[in-house]
């Protein structure tokens, strides 16, 4: 495999072709990069301006008297080829081409796009795009698109998205979702760099523990299959593939010019490669968060620990449909809990603890139970009750124990948390249960996450 | 049908049997009702106390020298029968029995529960419960359980839940979800009042436009089928049925003592009755919110108006799988939009407007297009861009138009909104798009909601 230049992710110097005073990408990106500390290694190009954001503006890239690592190109479509030729002349190895209007618009755009690919290969230059916003690297506070970089926590999830807007909105949404990325890359129409290159990149990237891919259609099915398998052999790879239906395919074609292919083929290809396929946007990122923090699950037997019988039934239904099992608790676990349990409590699996103040004890017992490989924790309580407890100076730990401490003592099995309530309640649960009992957004996703942790464990175990 | 006493929902006087100083239900409910303005018509019963919350405490219900509309019973299980006999002697017509420990715990509890049912029928008294928290009526600020009543907005959604905790957490969650209920009722083990009684109640209730039911298993399949059909002939009825799998059934049996039955039978029964079945908790309430505000959809042709191509493809996939169609836009619509559209824009359906500032125009054109029966609106934009616009004094309307005004002019087709972003972004969208272009939580749910609005339209049209 041909590693991507590291200049894409950690450029020491950057040129922006198409910098502008007028708003839009050409004005937003220089602002952002200046704010992020790149001012002294940022070069702006625009034939009609002399100064933007207090920086000198060059007429052409070839006028710059310094070595350039990365070019961000946002000029109008008809100027793209000339600018790329200048990039090549200047020996730039990495280009992010954001301009739209190529294969997604029809045959003429597709022809231009092919020429760009050829140009890249002839010059030994790598190009991300066109029709993308490039990448966001919160570790180094670098982004080729205007986002709230300050709010993004650097993390260990590598995200590959075909579409630019998709990348930007994930970046916006991430902080509210405890979603911490290593880098987030939008690849657009893939005149040169494609999802396969990116899979190889993240498979090798030390900062990345989980790879997430939003795909409309693979550029080259066979290369993609190989890359997916090689990447999945090293790290979990999670994919959401859209353009699943006839109408979706047509929509994808006019969006990133993708040929999306037969959905059944993708399903087989992904399964054989050890890739986990998500069934929705929310599920994709819920799974990413879980894989970023949780150990794999070594068997298919799970425990459900809940203070709501109903939500416990929902999680149980979903788990059963995925082929997970809820075994009887071991007699040691049952005896230990029965001693403390009020008479109305059924000590079984799912373990419905109601308002018993035994949530912590139940969670600990389930994690210690040798019959159980992973746990779904569903702490819910009317906020009015928690609120009046807290106002009376009683800590919520009275009811839920100290889940984070329990987790620290028993870190080897996955735990996913699901809850419902007011935003104050959600914040409290995030704090009490911590990132290592990852919060997901539905009972169904909690089960899917444990299923995926087990499936990936089997795939890895088979390969070893 | 035998209408439930209105005393359940709007009691003029209330007795709480099992009032307590010690915390728990017995202490929380008197506090709440006092705070809600019921102090002067609230009677507390506890053989071992003389005063609670500044109110006189009676030893027995029969000691009270006033007419009582409603009894809330929270005494320990072994005292329940005696207390109910006192309720009967006092001619109380409505009893909410919250105590747990009946059929959900085994044969002995089931026997007691049957006795309670018999007692109710012999006395001509109606009993909700046991193993429930009764009901919450935000219109009259009445609740038989401790919840944040002040934060709940009264609305037009009637909610029937089997489980008490479920009811409480929905009440907690509702304000953050723009979910406004007429009443929320938890029916528990159904010694007497069951889901069928409640369906008839809400079908007749003038404050209720949509009925939502969380069901583990119907008490009497044939009565339920009839009630569901009669209710659905008047108002949309949305059901989430759990205990769908073997493991889920066992869990439900130990939760509310429900026999959940064969899932396939329910599926057929609900479909034939014109009931919409939701596939998750979140979907159930997303649909409720949509039905509470949207007109029905008169055909199966929808338009997708989006500023994100990817999310547009996801919505299209989901719509197509449900049997909805995305027709070509009419030539008048296309011509009107092409005049303003930038060259990179594909004027088709889904209508991907990107960052074009044409969102409002696109939304309006889709709503006016005679080929389109309903619209999915997906406004997304990197918050950094909106933020810098707003800081520069530019209103977000520059990009999204004035959707609320457009909606007011064109109210006849349903519009559901889906977006992704930071919490500031979500608030902005809620404000800009308003409740009448209801926000739902995923692209899939947006499609499901339009599908449901169409399906229910067909059901109603067939009956007329």
Overview of this protein structure:
The structure is a homodimer of 464-residue chains. The mean pLDDT of chain A is 93. In chain A, helix 2 packs parallel to helix 3. The first copy, chain A, has helices at residues 25-38, 80-89, 107-123, 164-173, 195-204, 221-232, 246-256, 263-272, 281-293, 309-321, 331-340, 359-368, 383-391, 397-400, 403-409, 423-433, 443-463, and strands at residues 14-17, 42-45, 51-52, 55-58, 70-73, 94-97, 126-128, 134-137, 142-143, 157-161, 181-186, 210-215, 237-241, 276-277, 302-306, 351-352, 374-378, 415-418, 439-440. The first copy, chain A, contains 17 helices and 19 strands. Chain A is elongated, with a radius of gyration of 25 Å. The first copy, chain A, has a seven-stranded mixed β-sheet, with helices on both faces. The interface between A and B is large, with 84 and 84 residues.
């Amino acid at each position: 495999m041909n590693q991507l230049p590291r200049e894409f992710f950690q450029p020491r110097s950057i040129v922006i072709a198409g910098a502008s005073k007028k708003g839009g990408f050409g004005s937003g990106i220089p602002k952002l990069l200046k704010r992020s500390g790149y001012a002294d290694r940022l070069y702006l190009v625009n034939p009609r301006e002399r100064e933007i954001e207090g920086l000198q503006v060059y007429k052409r890239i070839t006028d710059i008297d310094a070595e350039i690592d990365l070019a961000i190109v946002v000029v109008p479509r008809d100027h793209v080829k000339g600018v790329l030729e200048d990039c090549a002349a200047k020996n730039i190895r990495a280009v992010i081409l954001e301009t739209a209007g190529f294969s997604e618009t029809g045959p003429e755009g597709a022809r231009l796009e092919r020429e760009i690919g050829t140009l890249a290969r002839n010059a030994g230059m790598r190009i991300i795009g066109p029709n993308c916003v490039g990448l966001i690297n919160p570790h180094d506070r670098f982004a080729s698109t205007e986002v709230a970089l300050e709010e993004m926590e650097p993390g260990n999830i590598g995200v590959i998205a075909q579409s630019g807007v998709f990348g930007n909105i994930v970046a916006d949404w991430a902080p509210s979702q405890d979603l911490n990325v290593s880098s987030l890359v939008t690849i657009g129409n893939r005149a040169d760099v494609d999802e396969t290159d990116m899979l190889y990149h993240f498979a090798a990237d030390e900062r990345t523990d989980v790879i997430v891919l939003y795909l409309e259609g693979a550029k080259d099915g066979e290369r993609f299959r190989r890359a997916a398998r090689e990447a999945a052999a090293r790290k979990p790879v999670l994919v959401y593939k859209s353009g699943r239906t006839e109408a979706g395919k047509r929509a994808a074609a006019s969006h990133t010019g993708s040929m999306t292919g037969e959905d059944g083929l993708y399903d087989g290809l992904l399964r054989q490669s050890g890739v986990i396929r998500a069934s929705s946007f929310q599920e994709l990122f819920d799974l990413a968060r879980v894989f970023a923090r949780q150990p794999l699950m070594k068997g298919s037997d799970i425990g459900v620990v809940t203070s709501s019988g109903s939500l416990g039934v929902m999680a149980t239904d979903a788990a059963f449909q995925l082929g997970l099992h809820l075994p009887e608790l071991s007699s040691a676990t049952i005896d230990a809990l029965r001693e403390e349990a009020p008479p109305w409590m059924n000590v079984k699996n799912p373990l419905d603890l109601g308002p018993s103040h035994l949530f912590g004890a139940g969670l600990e017992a389930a994690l210690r139970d040798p019959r159980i490989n992973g746990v779904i924790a569903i702490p819910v309580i009317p906020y009015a009750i928690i609120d009046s407890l807290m106002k009376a100076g009683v800590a919520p730990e009275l009811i839920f124990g100290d889940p984070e401490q329990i987790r620290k003592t028993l870190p080897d099995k996955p735990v996913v948390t699901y809850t419902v309530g007011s935003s104050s309640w959600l914040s409290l649960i995030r704090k009490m249960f911590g990132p290592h009992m990852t919060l997901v957004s539905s009972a169904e996703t909690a089960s899917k996450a444990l299923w995926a942790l087990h499936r990936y464990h089997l795939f890895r175990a088979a390969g070893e």
